[in-house]
Amino acid sequence: MVEKCYSCLICGYKGLIQNPLYKGEYQKTFDICPCCGFEFGYSEDHDVRLGFIVTPDHLIEAAFQLYRKQWLESGMVIAHPEDIPEELKNGNCLKFEVLLKQLKKLNLDIENFEISGF
Question: Which superkingdom, per the lineage?
Answer without folding.
Answer: Bacteria
